[in-house]
Design a protein that fits this description.
single chain, alpha/beta, 12 helices
Amino acid sequence: MELSRRSFLKLSGAGIGVTALAQLGFSATALAASEELRISEAKETTTVCPYCSVGCSAIVSVMDGKIVGIEGLPDSPVNRASLCSKGQSIYQVANNDRRLTKVRYRAPGATDWEEKTWEEAIPRIARLIKDTRDATFVETEDVDGTKVTVNRCEGIAQLGGAALDNEECYLASKFARGLGLVYIEHQARICHSSSVPGIGATYGRGAMTNHYIDLKNADVFMVCGSNTSENHPVTWKWMEKARDERGAKIIVVDPRFTRSAARADLFSFIRPGTDIAFFGALINYAIQK
């Protein structure tokens, strides 16, 4: 075999590394065993990340009732084994001495919290819901002199979140509608009060019209007012995959120089409040050209 300078250095480095590990008491067999240790002794369960609405799947490794590791699920069509810093921090949330594991209750007018059991809390919550529903339930409403059955509860509101999976959302909304609630809210109203009607009028459906994986097939991305690489790194992963494999271009439009802007092919540095003028100019250019 012809030995070049580069191959000589690589072989020397590998030999030194193996020797050093052996001196420290490690061997190839020991290293291989350590790779199997987590899998063989820990119980693995799949879950969905509780943070943003991307819906990344994770594998949770549990040993003796305690989480010992969290990693991305390779079979997930969303994150394909990767987890962002938020997803990886699930481990810290689960293994945190400051995390509340019992019900805390503060009576009306009190200043101190009391510790309650679930056996005490659940009946109490159910009783408050029942009493409030009975006191604010409307069976009929007069419409132009005719009594119309409405069966609604006006004293309770429901608040959901994007971190719930489909099954949880279905169960929560079913429960709320069963009580007759008419105000069923979601935190995404802050994010999507404008996007839902806009996407609905444009594409016929007011929700995301494609899958995350489909991003790898795009030719151009224009990110406007979003720091995707930090806030939604899994989304950014598929965008960079399109750029690396297909030569896609990433354009970032933002009044701030963010990490996304730093990694973009083109950064359009606009003034705050000039979004309408900017997009109006783009529309005008498209019409004219």
